[in-house]
Amino acid sequence: MNEQTAYAKTITGIYNKVYQGKNIGKIPTYIPELLNVSPDKFGIAIHTLSGKTFGIGDYQEKFSIQSIAKVLSLSMAYDIFGDSIWERVSVEPSGTSFNSLLQLEANNGIPRNPLINAGAIVICDILLSHFKNAEEEFIKFVRQLANDPTINYSEEIAASEKEVGYRNFALCYYIKSLGNIENEPERVLDFYFKLCSIELTCESLAYIFTFLANDGITLHGQQRILPHVYTKRINAIMQTCGFYDESGEFAFRVGLPGKSGVGGGIVAIMPGHYAIAVWSPRLNEKGNSYRGVKFLEGFTMQTQISVF
Ligand code: GLN
User: Fold this and answer.
1) Most CB atoms within 10 A, among 165, 203, 276, 278?
2) Mean pLDDT throughout 8-30?
3) Catalytic member of 262, 267, 278, 293
4) What is the C-alpha to C-alpha distance for residues 7 and 18, in angstroms, rounded to an integer?
């Protein structure tokens, strides 16, 4: 059986099993616009480095990628500023929820890692200080990775989050008070809400992340986006921090670097092999897609391929 047929068969089998099982968890209510999505959506897409693709369920429907975008803004900032970004944000798992304020005071306004809200907000600040129009440059970067000029922010989702984003306002003002934000907090948050609002299908999300499975190089045009060592480090950060205080559990059950978002998406990569994206909006109590984690656990169990 060739690679494509084997993955298609495995994915279909696990998809059906997870689909028939329970769908527990909640849709987050703090971003009103996300409540318009049916909680039973379920889609999966894989993209292998040899160019094979397979998708099932709602894999061609767009959803809000939310925190998954933080990996892309981090990649962009890391490439431009190199290791100097680690003076502004650490690389330790937080062991706390994605929007926690808890460790900031003890850590003097240096967020624990770039994949929690506090860290991603600092990365936004870094990009804003560098570009005249950071929003424009960032979406161009995502379009380049996707090889798709139509990708965009959702103004509705960004506005909806801004209206009630008190927690993120608190984080940003607090970090500013500790001296680790250069720009006006409102401006930083506008960019942060925008990058979280990007909408993608599982199909294009999986494709975008193939560069991290492919040593930093895009599949189209073989364009190097990140040096080898930066790619290695971003994958390490996804492995240790990609699922907030469920990162250890995700490594234990799935064994792949990945990143979740409160829109119900999860993307994971197997270096040298593939990138895979799953979307199912109901979230477990740690804020990660219930069915997404279940599916990926089944997938690495059955394929017996993972980084461990
Ligand atoms: N935009 C969301 C927030 O800032 C992203 C969080 C997430 O996806 N975990 O709260």
Assistant:
1) 278
2) 96
3) 262
4) 16
Ligand 1 atom with least separation from CA of 168 = 4
**Structure token digits, residue 32:** 């009103």
67 lines ligand 1 (CB under 6 A): yes
* 213 contact partners, CB below 8 Å, separation of at least 6: 49, 269, 270, 271, 272, 273, 274, 275
Residue partners of 32: CB distance under 8 A and separation at least 6: 160, 163, 164
CATH class of 3-303: alpha beta
- Which residues, 6+ apart, have CB-to-CB distance to 195 below 8 Å? 69, 70, 72, 73, 120, 124, 138, 153
Beta-bridge mates of residue 200:
63
Q: Mutation test of ligand 1: which of 33, 99, 244 has the most ligand atoms closer than 8 Å to its C-beta? A: 99
Q: Report the predicted TM-score, pTM, of the whole model to 2 decimal places.
A: 0.98
Say how far apart CA 101 and CA 167 lie, in whole Å: 9
Q: Which candidate, 292, 228, 214, places its Cα nearest to that of 51?
A: 214
Pocket test for ligand 1, best of 34, 97, 98, 188 (most atoms within 8 A of CB): 98
Distance 1 CA to ligand 1 centre (A): 40
Q: Delimit the domains of the chain by residue range.
A: 3-303
Binding-site annotation: residue ranges: 67, 117, 161, 168, 192, 244, 262
* pLDDT tens column, 251-303: 999 999 999 999 999 999 999 999 999 999 999 999 999 999 999 999 999 99
Decide: helix, strand or coil at residue 48.
Answer: strand
Enumerate the known binding-site residues for substrate. Answer: 67, 117, 161, 168, 192, 244, 262
Distance CA 209, CA 1 (A): 26
Tens-place pLDDT, residues 111-158: 999 999 999 999 999 999 999 999 999 999 999 999 999 999 999 999
Residue 1: the pLDDT is 66
**pLDDT tier, 3 (very low <50, low <70, confident <90, very high otherwise):** confident
